Structure formats: structure tokens, C-alpha cells
Amino acid sequence: MQNILLIGAGRSTYSFVEYIKAHSESENWFLTIADQNLELAEEKAAKHPRMKAISLDVQDEIQRVHAISKADVVVSMLPAHMHIPVATDCIALGKHMLTASYISKEMRALDERAKEAGVVLINEIGVDPGIDHLSAMKVLDEIRDAGGEVKLFESFTGGLVAPEYDDNPWNYKFTWNPRNVVLAGSAGAVKFIQEGKYKYIPYHQLFRRTEIVSIDGYGKFEGYANRDSLSYREVYGLHDIPTIYRGTFRRPGFCRAWDVFVKLGMTDDSYQIEVDPEMTYRDFTNLFLAYNPNDSVELKLMHYLNIPQDSELMHKLEWLGLFSDAKINMTKPSPAQVLQKILEEKWTLGEDEKDMIVMFHKFGYELKGEKRMIESSMVTIGKNSKETAMALTVGLPLAIAARHILNGNISTPGVQIPISKEIYLPMLEELKENGISFTEREVDYKGY
Amino acid sequence: MQNILLIGAGRSTYSFVEYIKAHSESENWFLTIADQNLELAEEKAAKHPRMKAISLDVQDEIQRVHAISKADVVVSMLPAHMHIPVATDCIALGKHMLTASYISKEMRALDERAKEAGVVLINEIGVDPGIDHLSAMKVLDEIRDAGGEVKLFESFTGGLVAPEYDDNPWNYKFTWNPRNVVLAGSAGAVKFIQEGKYKYIPYHQLFRRTEIVSIDGYGKFEGYANRDSLSYREVYGLHDIPTIYRGTFRRPGFCRAWDVFVKLGMTDDSYQIEVDPEMTYRDFTNLFLAYNPNDSVELKLMHYLNIPQDSELMHKLEWLGLFSDAKINMTKPSPAQVLQKILEEKWTLGEDEKDMIVMFHKFGYELKGEKRMIESSMVTIGKNSKETAMALTVGLPLAIAARHILNGNISTPGVQIPISKEIYLPMLEELKENGISFTEREVDYKGY
Questions:
Q1: CATH class of the domain defined by A2-122
Q2: Three-state SS string across chain A, please?
Q3: With an 8 Å Cβ cutoff, is A268 touching chain B?
Q4: In Å, how far are A185, B38, B74, B121, B268 from B99, measured between CA atoms?
Q5: Which of A32, A282, B223, B312 has its CA 20 to 30 A from that of A424?
Q6: Mutate which of A205, A278, A338 to disrupt the B interface (most B C-beta within 10 Å)?
């Protein structure tokens, strides 16, 4: 029997557990689900004969080493900064490991040790990063194998509400960690290259520099840039590519309205505001506007940011309750924490509502003197409140990769991300069988 | 004979050294000028019989302790983060110490130890902070002593070019560390309170939320907010004051134009840009604008930030050379470093040009049911390229305080700032004798 250890039993682990459970008899697997919260782990294990739940404090070295020592492969769904002790133990004990997080510097530094230990340590094997690597590398390799030269690569992913439940003026609901959505982009300037020209966008302009993309059957999406697109030149072997841009999808109109929060300073998480018990949402908004006792908060905001009164944008802000007399009831929050609370009241996905993951790539290339372009897109709609699109697209790649490692199909040791043909071909195949597939089509070349 | 040790011999130490030299015979003082750069120290000591220069690496504990052990009072003109080892040694050796820097947390933590050792450790005794404390506390105490209640306190300081040499479209030249000017305000959100309402301004809006102040004989100034005005409620004993605001002066029109650099992202010091050897100022500007090969850099900028072509603002940008074909010639600079280089070419104060320090306070208060207001202002013009307004207003308070410590007039031990009557009264008196004086006048009360 082979043992799989899942560390972290949060809501995006559902599809991972389902996949392992479904194959556990035929593959002779046993899954241990570990979480600091034992109840959460027990709920996921559901008293299945081939699963068990354990309580695990990952900071406790004895508990951690003990649990890892009994596994053949370890899947860490912990927050990104908590992977390193797990990875270190996996290398020490010769266990393979998978994460859906971006490779950190500290993780990359373990590469040599992982290779010496013969340990396969795959990161970035969820949805974004993850499925984006698999699907992009497939097309990039096809172009290069045919003798083409890649001139342009753009890639967008969005976690959104499914069209059927898209019923608010923002066309958005939280389908993922709300805090990450509130702070998105705030860590530093955005970097990319377009037609050979480097471009940098400061955070406070990020949501005003967007690009519109249409996807057949799903309408229009609006993309804003992710932090560092330049590093993907190396990752994808596109060293001299003139245009590379990675971004995040929202529905059109979202970014211009979100920009209001950025411009006001409401997404700042670096300091605490003074809050009295009577403070309202309206008072919160007023913190960021100039003092004037004769003007309404609405008028000051419209004038400050040049927003027409009868605009869709103003409607979005009013609908959220930004001018309401509801109490904040928080102690010493940061602006970002108050904004998150206001948004959660309106943007929480209902129990019976479904989410949607949208991914889109654009590849421009030159083949035998001719310029060509391929668009590749994937849309996954959640099945229910547990099998969300997010859980499916994060959990299935992890589970499929775990299977290939246990079967010995993936065996190249070292700290890596899923960009080799040996990994992406079988994985894309099996994702397709599970309903996660890409539509590729040739379109007319369009540069900038 | 009493010994004074000056650590750091930069250009703002000139007036300090002159004052000590002038009093050295009558007071029987000896001044040791220490700097990592011995030549710089020697130039300042000028072979005067009561002065000597030494080479001192302040990181070298043996050198540092040795030098401090021979002094009666130590004046540290080092960058703020380097004061702590000096302060620690001063406490250990029972030597008094002065700095013109803001008190850091680490410095404040030494208070108990300083008191135990009987050491007077005064910080914030330059111009801003320094003369602002002295002059503000005098009026605040007068109002309170008369039974008044302070309702409003605003304070601004600016280091500017003297009117006679104010000959460029920005009405600004560097009279102080250019790097600090480029990064001003970027460390975090601004906090103040106005008529009882807390207000927060994010960095990227800071230069759009200004206030205009007139000073008789010197025209109009424009103030933008300093980072944290709220902490001065405690410092000045103004716990429940409804309005407190501290800011920095520029000439009108400066801030709106500076805002262009902020909005573009040119003041960002957190990352390095890719620079090829041919990169020009124009290319630098274009890094922050959307790609479009058919539009000029000028047009893209004007459109992006909504700047009219025939505006004074556009003239300011063109005059600086932001669209010029001059080469950058830097290796891996941050945007802020490139901007500093561009500005230094145009904003450097000429050898025979003079600078100016402008300080302004506004005090609103209620006395016997009546609302009153006092304005207090100070303008100091540099005498020549060595006795600059900056050197005078930083160096003289330090020197005068050193004298009072050596004479025993200032003797309360502990880590402190100059806000007690025993300190500010004699100091303001002597500053006045040296030409640094405040004009106070009653004006009509004007709230918000």
C-alpha cells in the first residue's frame, strides 16, 4: 500500500480528496489528511476505510517529521510561506512533495539537496500557477517543434462567479481568499515587455491599464497585469521574446471601479485606523476625503475622483454600501480589513451558487516568414458548493501529479515546476477526461 | 577646558563649527571634528588652535569609544540610523549628547538608562525637527498659561531657494539631500485630524491635497502633509485637539507637477529597471506609458494624466528634459535614482546662490468664549554658499544647546526633545540674536 499525506484541509482540497478516494482501491492507496483543525480533517476523511484524519501543528517538528516519515508522497496545501519546513523534512526522509504555490527563493535553494536525495519536488501545480504552465508549454513547444519563433505570449486567469449567478453590478463574487483579492497587486510595481519596450506600472495605476479579451460563449473579460511577467521569459524559454504579459481576469468595468478603492487608499494594509464604536461605512469612506462639513461624502468622492453622478461606477459604489450608516464594529483595523468586511457582505458566494475559472492564452509567432496567432482558452464551472471550479482546477492537477509520482511516471528529482513534456502531456490528457480542457484556434495575427 | 566632539562633518555642520569656534576662547572649549573622511574634517577644523580633526569610522567600536571618552558633550550629525551605538557609548561613559534627528524607537528605549547615568540626550534639535518645537511650544504654552484652549495647530517648514535665485519654472532647487526630496512621503500613508475628523492620504494622492499659505514679504507657499501629524498631539500636550496638521512647503504649482512623477511611478525606489546603454530620458519616461508606436511620448503622457498641452505643468516637465534624448548612462538604477539624476542636472544650487528656510505655524484657540488665532512665521536666507540657511538653522540650535549643557543650564537627564520652557526660552532668545526670529501676529479665527 502507498501512503499519501495531505497537509491542510481547507475548502480547495475537496476535489483532491475525491480523486484520491476514487482511485484508492484500484491503486491501493491510503490517504492521511492532516490539519491543525482536526474536525476539518475528519470531515474531509468522512470515515472512509482508506482515509484517516490527524491533527497536525506544522510548526511542531516532532509531529511534522513523524507524519511525513509514514508517507510516500506529501501534498502541502499550506499557505506558501509554510512549505519550507515540510520540504526540508521531505528531502531528509526521501519523500516526494507537491505544492500549488509559487516557488519561493527558499524553495529554489533546496534544489541541489532534493536532487541528491532523489526527491521529486513539484511546485506551481494548481490552476494559476499550474494549469497555465501545462497548457501554455504545450502550445509553445508545438510552435517551436514546427520551427516557429514565438513573438508574443499573453496569459490571463480569473476566478469569477459562474454566469448563472452573476447578478450584481460588479459581476464579481469572492470565490477565493478575500484578503488576497483586496491586496492583489499591492506588493510592488508591475513589470512586462511589449514589442521590445519594457513597461512598468505602479500599483496605484494598475487598475487603469487593462486589456479586453472575448471568449466565445462567455463574453468579455478585462485583464489587469500580474506583478512580474518578465521572469516567465526564463521559465518558458522565451529569452528574447518582444512581448510577454500575464494578468488576471475580471468582468469589464470591475477594474475602473476597484481603482476607486486604490485611489482613496482603502486597500492599504500597512497601518491601523482610529475607530470609535459609532463609526459607519460612510465615516470610513470620509476618512479618505478632504474635510468639508457642507458637502456630502458622495459629492466629495465624485469631485475628488472625477466620477459622474449618473455613472455605472457610482452605482457600484452605492450598491456596496460605501455611503451607508451601517456600523463597522472592528477594533483597530487596517483600511484593507474594513474594505474586506464591506465587500464580504455583498460578494460572498451563496451556498448553492457556482464559481467559474477562466484561462486564456495568446501566442503570436513567425513560421516560414509568416506571422500567425493561436488563442487557447479554458472555462471551468463549479459543479456545486464543494466541487467548486477552484477546488477542481487546484485539486485535480495535484492529485493527478501525485498518481504519476506514485506510479513512477514522474521521477526526475529536484525542485521544479510542471513545464516538461513528460509531465504536461499526460496531465492535460487526464484533466480533459475530467472536464478541464482547452479550446485552441488559429486567429489573424494582431500585434501592437 | 571642556571638550566637544562633533561626529560627521557634512555641509550642514558649517554654522555649528563657526559658533563653537567663535566662543571657544571665552568659554575655554576644544572641538574635535570626527569624520570617516579625514580631509573633510580637516577642512572644517582649518588648523584652528582650539579645533582638531580626526578620522573616525563610527562602526569601529574601539575608535568610537576612545573618541567619546575624551568628550564632555557629543554632537552626532550622522544619518539617523547610526546614532544608536554613539548614544549607547555616551550613556556608558556619562557624556551628554545632541542630535538633529527624529527620535527613533531604539533611541526612546534608552531613556531609563540615560536617566540612571545622568546623561542629557536631546534629539530633534535642528530646524525641522528642532526650531519648530521651540517656536511652537512657546506660543502653545503662552495660550495655555493665559487660560486658553488650543483648537487648531498647523505647522509647515520648507527648504527652498532664496527669492533672488528663484529662476526656474519649478521655483525649486535642491538645498538638502536630493534623495530625501525624491522619496519624500513615500514611506506610508499620511495621518492627521481636522475638526475632529481623522484623515488619511495615500502617498499617490499626497501631492494633490495641498494648502496655500501667504507670508508677508515672501509671497505664497503650498504645503503638503507630513507623514504622521497625530503623534504630535502627545508630544505637544494637545491630546484632544480637533485639528493638527504638519506639512512641508513648496512654491505653488510644485506639488501638482511633482504628482506627475508619483503618478507615473518614477519615485519608486523598490526595484531596478532594465537599462540599455542607449537609453535616454525620453525612453525612461516612456517606460511608464502604454505601448503605442504611433503616438509621441509627450502625447501619451498628456493623455494619460489629463495634462493640457499649453499648461505651465507641461512646461515644467519639458524644461526638466523629461522628453530629451540625453543618455541616462546608469547601471541597474531604480526609477527614483534616474529621476534624481535628471533633477540634479537642473535643480542644483549654484556656488554663489543662496537658499531659504521658511517656517510657519498657525494656532487656533478659545479664550473666555472667544475664538482667536495666531500666526507665527520665520524666514531665514542663507548668507553664502557655506553659511546656508540650512546650515544656520540646523547648526545654531545644536551649538546653542551644547553651550547650555556645558554651562549646566540644561541638566535634566534622559532622552528628550526640546519642548520645555527651560530649553526653548533661552534658545529662542539666542537664535534671535543670530538673526533667526519669528514674527507673531493675531489674525481673525478661521476654522474649516
A1: alpha beta
A2: CEEEEEECCCHHHHHHHHHHHHHHHHHCEEEEEEECCHHHHHHHHCCCCCEEEEECCCCCHHHHHHHHHCCCEEEECCCHHHHHHHHHHHHHHCCEEEECCCCCHHHHCCHHHHHHHCCEEECCCEECCEHHHHHHHHHHHHHHHCCCEEEEEEEEEEEEECHHHCCCCCCCCECCCHHHHHHCCCCCCEEEEECCEEEEECHHHHHHCCEEEEECCCEEEEEEECCECCCHHHHCCCCCCCEEEEEEEECCCHHHHHHHHHHHCCCCCCCCCCCCCCCEHHHHHHCCCCCCCCCCHHHHHHHHHCCCCCCHHHHHHHHHCCCCCCECCCCCCCHHHHHHHHHHHHHECCCCCCEEEEEEEEEEEEECCEEEEEEEEEEEECCCCCCCHHHHHHHHHHHHHHHHHHCCCCCCCEEECCCCHHHHHHHHHHHHHCCCCCEEEEECCCCC
A3: yes
A4: 39, 21, 9, 8, 29
A5: A32
A6: A205
Q: Quick one: pLDDT band at residue A21, thresholds 50, 70, 90?
A: very high
Among candidates A195, A198, A286 on the partner chain, residue whose Cβ is nearest the Cβ of B287:
A198
Q: What is the pLDDT of residue B311?
A: 95
Task: At B390, list the grid cell.
Answer: 540650512
Share of chain B above pLDDT 70, in %: 100
Contact assignment for B189 to A292 by CB distance below 8 Å: no
pLDDT tens per residue across span B182-201: 999 998 899 999 999 999 99
pLDDT for B385 equals 86
Sorted by sequence, the CB contacts under 8 Å of residue A60 that are 6+ apart come out as: none
Task: Name the minimum distance, in Å, from the CA of A197 to any CA of chain B.
Answer: 7
CB atoms B448 and A292 under 8 Å:
yes
Chain A residues touching B194 at Cβ < 8 A? 291
CB B369 within 8 A of CB B380: no
Rounded distance between C-alpha atoms, residue A161 and residue A174, angstroms: 8
Asked if B311 and B349 count as a contact pair (C-beta separation under 8 A), the reply is no
The confidence band for A370, taking pLDDT boundaries of 50, 70 and 90, is very high
Three-state DSSP state, B135: helix
What would the pLDDT profile of A30-66 be if each residue is shown by its tens digit? 999 999 999 999 999 999 999 999 999 999 999 999 9
Note the pLDDT of residue B135.
98
CA pair distance B321, B316, nearest whole angstrom:
9
- The per-residue pLDDT of chain B, averaged, comes to 96
Q: Which residue has the cell 569624520?
A: B35
Which of B189, B230, B291 is facing A194, going by the closest CB pair? B291
At B80, the pLDDT band (50, 70, 90 cuts) reads confident
A288 touches B: beta carbon within 8 Å: yes
pLDDT-based confidence at A1, cuts 50/70/90?
very high
| pLDDT value for A290 | 94
**CA-based nearest residue in chain A for residue B194:** A291
Taking contacts as CB-CB distances below 8 angstroms, the residues of chain A near B300 are: none
CA-based nearest distance A257→chain B, Å:
17
Whether A448 has a pLDDT exceeding 80, the answer reads: no
B448 has pLDDT over 80: no
Domain boundaries along the sequence of chain A? 2-122, 131-256+351-443
Cβ proximity of A168 and A315 under 8 Å? no
ipTM, interface predicted TM-score of the complex = 0.85
- The class of domain B131-256+351-443 in CATH terms is alpha beta
